[in-house]
Design a protein that fits this description.
Radius of gyration: 27 Å
Structural class: alpha+beta
Number of strands: 22
Strand content: 15-25%
Number of helices: 12
Shape: globular
């Protein structure tokens, strides 16, 4: 699961090969230093910076950009180096900010080679500082750990390097700023980021914004049993209150509309608005629940944090109950074993001892159940006030808020993928919220052998249900984004999903009809691959203004039905490329497939399945929570029988796309 660190907190690292993703909102210089056990840099070979982008075990960018990807391989760090520090600094350029207090708080995410997030850290509390030691990796008993440092330097990068014992830091800093100056000159004068106003330019010029992953715990403390789990669906479980998270716009804006792929996990423009006051409780009774009483910058964020606070509370309460039951039963078994092993008890009869052991066990279990029922009652009451207050992106499809739906002005923090519950309280559902923009694709499993519920259906029924589920997810994504900022493509090689896709096709939310046949598959994948390459090169070079003016800068979602039917080797390679590289530049997959159908490709497709968040079209207990070892039952979203809500919402989305109005 992902741990959201606060300043001074450390965390173990499961891998030595890592990637650090930095989102800063403004162009920053990234660097790294290696230091000995005394925190001193031995020489210039222990430095990585734009003028010298690599040192043993670390490689940084040659540019000053708002988004960095820094490669770290701790296995090749010299044995004499005990610490690896990641540095961020503001470049010196006309019009550039001079202190971190004037920009959005930088956000860092440390991921493993497969892309799963390990820790994240938002550098809050900076003011006049223009350079900062963001995080450090350090050796501890032959293992590496990470610490959130956040130590800023008002004297800038020169003061920071001098503090670490670097010789002639002023000369080195001058070289660094000289190296990044050409790129900074191209970014300082770019248009301002997207505000909350919707642009009303020509409908064809679709604008976009986005951001940079948890089952309630990282993005999610969850891993899938049999496939990669939702390590992307909720905030951290490292304590309460949860860190705040809010949309933060990016900086580059090409002619066709703004590109904004910064992670929306922080905001530092204003203090959080106060949570609603909780009415006083009667003596001896818990305080009545109030919707939005968690911390956050807005009501949406407070509800988001409250939902996953409820998840954490349910996980803790259930873990405590299961632990108590396990203890009671273990002690009962031990007492029975002792009684039966005593010859005197065997001769005189062991009925009294056995009865006493069972009574004590039942008493302990009963007390544990009372405590659990008390906690469940409080959580059920809280759910009763939170569910009616949820915004559309968080709400079930039977929520009245959808009847008054209008296209939003900005992207919400998260999206509801379904519900989660545990067997101890099947009536208590916790919304499963996935952070936006998506950091990984989705896979709706259409296989019959993956769950008991699916095994009771015939193959055609489960495939139809899986495609219906994918359409519901796509509709919610379209409804969550401002008009024109989300584009959906459909690949249906055999046309088997036509009936399920009818709501998308007939409403007019698709720019193109579903692609069919091998030729249609190739055309869509080639188009998206080309867009990915262009945007990726522009972002890495800090030259978003060089993108073609007709490029669709909106977030892209491609629905793939019946994979791998209609896919040749080239198409499979392109699909894997989109799954791996697409989310970082706004291209996302939503696959409807049975993994067994792709078995002919062998293990070559295993990374593809692991990179996607597996969800099911029927309730299934496939989400394993490594935090407290629970198996959560996932329930997919459903449209109420006879309801026209999906058609109504898609019609309003299509109207907003045509007119540019909400």
């Amino acid at each position: 699961m992902t741990a959201e660190l606060v300043r001074g907190q450390n965390h173990p690292l499961p891998h030595t090969r890592l990637e650090i993703r930095v989102s800063a909102g403004k162009a920053v210089v990234a660097g790294a230093t290696l230091a000995d056990e005394h925190g001193r840099v031995a020489g210039p070979e222990w430095l990585a910076h734009p003028a010298q982008p690599a040192c043993p075990g670390v490689e940084v960018s040659r540019q000053a950009t708002a988004d960095h990807r820094i490669a770290v391989d701790l296995a090749v760090v010299p044995a004499a180096a005990h610490r690896v520090s990641l540095l961020l600094a503001l470049p010196v350029a006309p019009g550039a900010p001079t202190s971190f207090g004037a920009v959005a708080a930088p956000f860092l995410a440390v991921t493993c080679p497969e892309g799963a997030a390990i820790v994240s850290y938002t550098l809050t509390g900076l003011d006049t500082e223009s350079a900062v030691v963001a995080v450090e990796f350090y050796r501890r008993q032959d293992a590496w750990k990470i610490r959130a440092v956040g130590q800023g330097y008002a004297g800038g990068l020169a003061e920071l390097l001098a503090d670490q014992g670097v010789d002639r830091p002023g000369e080195l800093v001058a070289t660094i700023h000289e190296t990044v100056a050409p790129g900074v000159a191209r970014t300082v004068g770019t248009p301002p980021p997207r505000t909350t106003e919707v642009r009303h330019s020509a409908p064809a010029a679709a604008s976009s914004a986005g951001g940079d992953h948890t089952l309630p715990g990282t993005g999610a403390p969850a891993s899938d049993q049999g496939a990669q789990g939702p390590a992307d669906a909720h905030p951290g479980t490292q304590g309460v209150p949860r860190p705040s998270a809010a949309n933060q716009p990016g900086t580059a804006a090409p002619p066709g509309g703004p590109i904004n792929y910064a992670h929306p996990r922080r905001q530092s423009a204003a203090p959080p608005s106060p949570a609603p006051a909780v009415p006083p409780a009667e003596p001896g009774r818990p305080a009545p629940p109030v919707a939005g009483d968690a911390t956050g910058w807005s009501m949406e964020e407070r509800l988001y944090n409250q939902v996953w606070g409820m998840f954490e509370d349910l996980a803790r309460a259930t873990a405590a109950y299961r632990s108590a039951v396990d203890f009671a039963e273990t002690r009962r078994d031990q007492e029975l074993d002792r009684a039966l092993s005593d010859p005197r008890v065997r001769l005189t009869g062991s009925g009294d001892a056995a009865t006493a052991a069972r009574d004590r066990c039942e008493e302990l279990i009963g007390r544990a159940r009372e405590a659990l029922d008390r906690d469940l009652g409080q959580l059920t009451a809280e759910s009763g006030v939170v569910e009616p207050a949820l915004p559309p992106a968080f709400a079930r499809w039977d929520h009245p808020v959808w009847q008054a739906y209008r296209a939003p002005m900005e992207i919400p923090m998260a999206l509801r993928l379904g519900d989660l519950h545990l067997p101890e309280c099947p009536g208590l559902r916790i919304p499963m919220l996935m952070r936006l923009p998506l950091e990984r694709g989705l896979w709706v499993d259409s296989g019959r052998r993956t769950s008991d519920a699916a095994s009771l259906m015939d193959e055609a029924q489960i495939r139809r249900l899986a495609m219906d589920t994918a359409v519901i997810h796509a509709a919610r994504l379209l409804a969550a984004y401002p008009a024109g900022e989300f584009t959906v493509h459909v690949i249906d090689p055999a046309g088997s999903g036509a009936s399920s896709l009818a709501p998308l096709v007939h409403s007019g939310v698709l720019d193109e009809p579903p692609a069919s046949g091998a030729q249609g598959v190739s055309a869509v994948l080639a188009k998206l691959t080309q867009r990915l390459d262009l945007v990726q090169m522009a972002v890495r070079a800090g030259a978003a203004d060089a993108l073609p003016p007709d490029l669709d800068t909106a977030e892209q979602l491609v629905i793939v039905n019946d994979f791998p039917h209609g896919f040749d080797d080239r198409a499979v390679t392109q699909l894997r490329y989109l799954a791996d590289e697409g989310p970082a530049v706004g291209v996302h997959l939503l696959m409807v497939a049975d993994r067994e159908d792709a078995s002919a490709y062998g293990p070559v497709l295993d990374p593809l399945w692991r990179s996607l968040l597996r969800i099911t079209p029927v309730p299934d207990a496939h989400l394993a929570d490594p935090w407290v070892q629970h198996s959560w039952t996932y329930e997919p979203p459903v449209i109420p029988p006879g309801s026209q809500v999906l058609r109504q919402v898609l019609t309003r989305v299509a109207e907003a796309r045509r007119t540019g109005r909400r």
